[in-house]
Design a protein that fits this description.
HAT_MetX-like (chains A, B); hydrolase activity (chains A, B); Rossmann fold; about 35% helix; hydrolase (chains A, B); homodimer; alpha/beta; about 350 residues; Alpha/beta fold hydrolase (chains A, B)
């Protein structure tokens, strides 16, 4: 299999929680050409368990993220299996000894790539779905003078308590499988746990209305509800590495733009420090990133606008290209933001 | 320990799905006195995993369900550990061989108790929370000439597809534990699975707003979110029998007032056949019984009114006495209904 991404060497990367990831790697893929003035770069981080190919649905000729106009960088999240992760890190930090990674760590690594490797000093836009939105908010709060616009969609600047609890359920289902063996499952993956986790996720990912309208059958073409649970949900999580999933889950649960030396836990202050023009885009029926949390964020950001996906697709209103109507809406809003 | 309930012998009880539960028992408790005219009985079925003491918060002097006025019967659901259940049924139908039980079976058993044992022919009210509401709807549809009023709260007449998926997650988490051993765990209960199931449930039981407002701490008095997850949620499910939980879960997932010889799957017809004056009461923020499903039901019932708990307590707006404001609201509505 040919590899369609590059690895950036982060060196000995000191993490926010104390560990050092020696020889840490950031996997990334770029689209388009960096302009001579280096003023056309867009950073577009990945989401929970996703990798850069899972982000490509938002990039294309004639779309807001047009590679003819922009230099688009997709950095893979630490822990996602391509950047440094439990599954690809040598001893002693391998598998379940892989250190805790924060969104702050991720964005600092991405910043290193963007500035030191590419020499970029201004970003017209950072955008992302879900945990990509979490990283997008971090970009705005950590580098307010560098980021001109942000468009976090279906995500939040801080993991809400309810979202945390939803993830506790996902984690408990995965780790209830004895085959998980505290992360030391080697080549024998915890299949039962991965399938259980998928079934837990299934109720959260799409809304009550999505299921009521049978869009799993009528829009996505599955042959029955059980087929959707097996083929879509179990099929999605089964190939993933359990320790990788748990690393990213921890990152998500501990996401908070103010949990660092810049803001010392003052969430309002961190939101207030985001200078970027922001389109904050929650989904009306997103069960773990409900619009109310976005409203709070927008109310405390100096230059932000709340734009809601009026969609029954739940969390999947925002990605990954699953709902065509919502993709179109998102693309139009991104164009509007980029042209402003 | 003294026993505060009675056992009614259902005899050899033929179940809707084909098995016969020989010597089946229905555990029940009554409050108040049956009038000489036998016209003051209220049936008030239990909810998922609940037993009759878990229903008592809605009964009391001066309340709608006043034992000075009414003869209140709480029948325990089959599978709940007191009525015939996997945990108390002798071989060969014990443990994971316990047969599939429908809500139809439950209500037919309750009807037998009420008519044959007590000689009651009219019921001024049937009411219940959650799966108790499911049984309430069944009473209305199965015995339309006997039931004068129904008040199903935070429940539905048919398990929605989304609700089904939520329960798939609960089930998958419980059964991912190898100790579950396909239900043959004997005395060594699947503790990890029960705890996992509890964590999955935690995100569904209360709403996003409940957690956002920290009502687990501020209203319920837990010392931290983790304390709430362990003490409230894990503490709730750990003492329960896993096979019992799965029996009731199957009953829930397959709940449908029209899935019987009376209506042959015609849900609208079954709703239309409910003659009882009905107060259908969903919770505004209930994540698995959203008001939209109740709206559909009410629209197809001849004599029903939709009354929504405007509450952030999610599913727990309706029970079990957890939210005092909502209990007061419910009690007032029940009084209004009983006096009409």
């Amino acid at each position: 299999m040919s590899v369609d991404y590059k690895l950036y060497d982060l060196g000995d990367f000191r993490l926010q929680r104390g560990a050092t990831l020696r020889g840490a790697k950031l996997a990334y893929k770029t689209f388009g050409t960096l302009s001579p003035a280096k003023d056309n770069a867009i950073v577009y981080p990945t989401w929970y368990s996703g990798q850069h190919p899972d982000n490509e649905w938002l990039i294309g000729k004639g779309m807001a993220l047009d590679p003819d106009k922009y230099f688009i960088v997709i950095p893979n999240m630490l822990g996602n299996g391509l950047s440094s992760s439990p599954s690809n890190t040598p001893e002693p930090y391998n598998a379940s000894r892989f250190p805790q990674i924060t969104a702050y760590d991720n964005v600092r690594a991405q910043h290193q790539l963007v500035t030191e490797h590419f020499g970029i000093t201004k970003l017209p836009l950072v955008t992302g779905w879900s945990m990509g939105a979490l990283q997008t908010f971090h970009w705005g709060a950590m580098y307010p003078d560098m980021v001109e616009r942000i468009a976090p969609f279906c995500g939040s600047a801080k993991c809400s308590r309810h979202n945390f609890v939803f993830l506790e359920g996902v984690k408990a289902a995965l780790t209830a499988d004895a085959a998980f063996n505290n992360g030391w499952y080697g080549d024998k993956k915890p299949e039962k746990g991965l399938r259980a986790m998928a079934r837990v996720y299934a109720g959260w990912g799409f809304s009550q209305a999505f299921y009521r309208q049978e869009l799993d059958l009528k829009a996505l073409g599955y042959s029955s509800l059980e087929d959707f649970l097996v083929a879509f949900w179990e099929g999605f999580f089964l190939p993933k590495d359990a320790n990788n999933l748990l690393t990213m889950l921890w990152t998500w649960q501990n996401g908070d733009i103010s949990d660092n030396e810049l803001y010392n836990g003052d969430f309002r202050k961190a939101l207030g420090a985001i200078k970027a023009k922001a389109y904050v885009m929650p989904g009306r029926t997103d069960l773990y990133f409900p619009p109310e949390d976005s409203e709070f964020e927008v109310a405390h950001m100096p230059n932000a606008k709340l734009i809601v996906f009026e969609s029954v697709w739940g969390h999947f209103a925002g990605g990954p290209g699953t709902s065509p109507v919502d993709v179109k809406f998102l693309d139009e809003k991104l164009k509007e933001l980029l042209n402003s």
